[in-house]
Design a protein that fits this description.
Strand content: 5-15%
Domain Aminoglycoside phosphotransferase: 3-74
Helix content: 40-55%
Family: Belongs to the pseudomonas-type ThrB family.
Distance between the termini: 19 Å
Number of strands: 4
Strand order of the largest sheet: 1-4
Protein name: Aminoglycoside phosphotransferase domain-containing protein
InterPro entries: Aminoglycoside_PTrfase, Kinase-like_dom_sf, Pseudomonas-type_ThrB
Order of helices and strands: EEEEHHHHHH
Number of domains: 1
Organism: Paenibacillus elgii
Number of helices: 6
Length: 139
């Protein structure tokens, strides 16, 4: 996919309902939580925001997805190739969600670790093991 200026740039990467607030005074949304921002295709933000609709193959979820895409296209262009790439963007998100805790576990041996660290490491390891199993499934 080409990284053309109109399709690629800095994205939020965590557009979830708890990160967007409506400002009554201005009639505009406000967005918080930019710690996951990255350079990527703009369609990645759409795929991340629509995770539930992309994972659920029900007619209702498909209708919600199509309504969002229509609304998005009303404001800015969105190439059909980008819409077709949503599953690839979701796969990237899964791999990224796997790599981050894996990297944290890599250097987690501390001489004077707090008691809670062992429990956290166990939870992260279990999460990574579950993710490994999910990667074996076709996408």
């Amino acid at each position: 996919m080409p990284a053309a200026e109109e399709a690629y740039g800095l994205i939020h990467y965590d557009f979830q309902t708890d990160n967007v607030f409506w400002q009554e005074k201005t009639g505009q949304p406000s967005v918080i939580d930019f710690d996951d921002s990255m350079y990527h295709w703009f369609a990645m933000d759409i795929a991340a925001a629509l995770t539930d609709q992309l994972e659920d193959e029900s007619p209702e979820s498909e209708a919600q997805l199509q309504a969002f895409v229509r609304g998005y296209r009303y404001v800015r262009p969105l190439d059909e190739a980008m819409v077709q790439a949503f599953p690839r963007f979701r796969r990237f998100a899964e791999l990224y969600s796997f790599a981050r805790p894996l990297a944290s576990l890599e250097n987690s041996e501390l001489k004077e670790a707090p008691e809670w660290l062992d429990g956290l490491k166990t939870e992260l390891q279990q999460y990574c093991d579950e993710m490994r199993q999910s990667f074996a499934k076709p996408w």
